[in-house]
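Hey Z.,

So I finally got round to the 1,3-dihydroxyacetonephosphate thing we talked about over coffee. Here's the setup:
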Amino acid sequence: MSLVPITDMLHDAKKNRYAVGHFNMINMEFAQAICEAASEERAPVILGVGEATIQYMGIDYVVSIAECAAKRSRVPVALHLDHGSSFPVIAQCIRAGFSSVMIDGSHHPLEQNVALTQKVVELAHAAGVSVEGELGSIAGTEEDVTVEEKDAQLPTVEEAVSFWEQTKVDVLAVAVGTAHGLYQAEPNVRCDRIADISSRINAPLVLHGGSGVKEEVIQQAISAGAAKINVNTENQVAFAESTRSVLNQKPVIADARDFLREGRAAIKETVRAKIRLFGSNNRV
Ligand code: 13P
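And the result:
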């Protein structure tokens, strides 16, 4: 299959109370693991790629690997820019073949965030590409962007509804208490806010910072209306732990595939477990 936008898959998820997994990919092994798990589970899936990964791999490698993974998959696969920071980056990704983009204007004052997001929606929709917008700032570190706990802001329900009405983004990420990266203390996830906002806008909501959140909280967030859940850190940890274990057992390695293969298998099982938790299995 070719790469698809995220709008249809997420409206179905919102309507039927499950969530589609967004899994960040940073190389070929991540893309293979994520798409193989999704195919075997018959789940639509989103490959998330941040700007640091675009710099690390090169945008042509990113798109080619995602297209190849999608072509081999029996399920819808989207290639989605995660936390796009500016209009030129968005335009570059759309030109290169991304099927979906996130514009994260949350570090700007509200009016500027609205204006930037409106501009992105116009460009992306003309190219058939879906758009995720963000309101409020999510604490933690995602790739090379860090937001301190004290600077994280949770918007009100009214602010979120008004942001969506003005921008008409296809999908909305609202800070609700989760954070990127590993948690030091248990997060207070405001599922009540997810429910209030979800009932008042005709767009699916996104939960960022899906790693390390208790299973029952994830289920509550999905019942409240979270239709896309982003996971990165848990896959990174699974990859690092399994490759480290191979390297510890076999200190002399002459073939990198000895540990890459194990790392890929570990990501695949982590993704499979998330897909089942999110209820997106057997949807295709
Ligand atoms: P985690 O790294 O906490 O799973 O968050 C991922 C994310 O939200 C990507 O946008």
